[in-house]
Write a structure and sequence with these properties.
Keywords: Kinase, Transferase. One of its GO terms (molecular function) is glycerate kinase activity. This protein is of the alpha/beta class. It contains 13 helices and 16 strands. A hairpin with a 5-residue loop joins strand 4 and strand 5.
Length: about 400
């Protein structure tokens, strides 16, 4: 059977490539940000393993942690579909985007990264004083119009720092300045808000179950807050960071008066430029992204009878130990007696704390090259490395 035939057979078997041998492998990677989606990563690993492990049963579950690729991963894993819509992007420009409808026909997945994402803004145009989550509210409203009331929202990868002002405005809330004019829904408008009217907020939101996937535990304001920690990567200068932080504090005070409780210090309130705060205000439940996506995709049940589990991400470093997807997958594998392996785009320094979680860790860069070259050749580099891992598994299994 040729490799192309094997892959076709896999695609027609509901995410599984089956053969006669009992060796069971689960492939559950995150995306390699900027180069390969989780689906592409997993598909490449699967093809490589099929070359080296004739007869293995391979279950492929693309994963995410709430950032880029969350919608695609869940739609693929749960036999869903994508509804295409046009909305306002992070610079309030028209963009084509969409939301996922999972196989249960009841759950919608919104991914902030493909509505108000950082990669949607050119580097020279990045300035969180000028970006907005308005489109998130528009897409949400579209899903509400279709009758959906259960939502999973992935917060990673945003270009914004507006505290959810734009989203709330798109969902009907009114924010006015001292002159009674509606403020522009961007981060730079937060300090201009003088009056908040929530009476016109979409009443259907009270009927919703809102689950939020994030791997960020930062509060809204302060030294560990959204502006200070994430503002620089979104293009903010030191002075703009101070301005944004003061704006978020002012915004929070106005909303907390209406809510009757403080939410700004809740872990995750600072996620996606403070969008986490606005979602908490709407009654959302914030859950570690990797955990939420794994549960929604039914990953643990797929791992239950696995011999080996392969995961990975774009860059593995010391931060991976703090709830990133590969650690979540590795712990799940260990609970069921499977052997976890990691294949990532690169492996940074200070990874000593990760050794207890994996049988071995592999970076796909096998020779000196620039980042641009690595990204350009990511698929072929991954294929080569995954074949090496397949040979490792074969030797271990042969000598067992």
């Amino acid at each position: 059977m040729t490799l192309s035939t094997k892959v076709l057979y896999y695609q027609t078997m509901d995410n599984k490539y089956k053969h006669t041998k009992e060796l069971n492998i689960v492939v559950a990677p995150d995306s390699y940000k900027g180069s390969l989606t989780a689906k592409e990563v997993g598909g490449t690993i699967l093809k490589a393993l099929a070359v080296e492990l004739e007869g293995a049963q391979i279950t492929f579950v693309p994963m995410a942690d709430g950032g880029e690729g969350t919608m695609e991963a869940l739609v693929f894993a749960m036999n869903g579909r994508i509804e295409t819509v046009q909305t306002k992007g992070p610079l309030l420009q028209p963009v084509d985007t969409g939301y996922g409808i999972l196989g249960d026909g009841e759950t919608v997945v919104l991914e902030v990264a493909n509505i108000a994402g950082l990669t949607m803004v050119k580097k020279e145009e990045r300035n969180p004083l000028h970006t907005s989550t308005f489109g998130v509210g528009q897409v949400w409203s579209h899903a509400l119009d279709q009758g959906y009331r259960r939502f999973i929202i992935g917060l990673g990868g945003s270009a914004t720092n507006d505290g959810g002002l734009g989203m709330l405005q798109a969902l009907g809330a009114d924010f006015h300045d001292q002159n009674g004019q509606t403020v522009i829904p961007v981060g730079g408008s937060l300090r201009e808000i003088d009056r908040v009217d929530l009476n016109s907020l979409d009443p259907r939101l009270r009927e919703c179950e809102i689950l939020v996937a994030t791997d960020v535990t930062n509060p809204l304001c302060g030294e560990q807050g959204s502006s200070k920690v994430f503002g620089p990567q979104k293009g903010a200068t030191a002075e703009q960071i101070r301005q944004l932080d003061r704006g978020l504090a002012h915004f929070a005070q106005l909303l907390e008066v209406n809510r009757g409780e403080s939410l700004r210090d809740f872990p995750g309130a600072g996620a996606a430029g403070g969008l986490g705060f606005a979602l908490l205000f709407l009654g959302a439940k914030l859950i570690p992204g990797a955990q939420l996506i794994a549960e929604a995709a039914g990953l643990e049940e797929k791992i239950r009878h696995a011999d080996w589990v392969i995961t990975g991400e774009g860059k593995t470093d010391y931060q991976t130990q703090y709830g990133k997807l590969p650690i979540t997958v590795a712990k799940m594998a260990q609970r069921h007696g499977a052997k976890p392996l990691l294949i990532s785009g690169s492996i940074g320094s200070d990874v000593e704390p990760l050794y207890p979680y994996f049988v071995s860790m592999h970076a796909i860069v096998r020779r000196p090259m620039s980042l641009e070259q690595a990204i350009e050749n990511a698929e072929s580099l991954l294929f080569e490395t995954a074949r090496e891992v397949g040979r490792l598994i074969r030797v271990v299994e042969t000598n067992r």
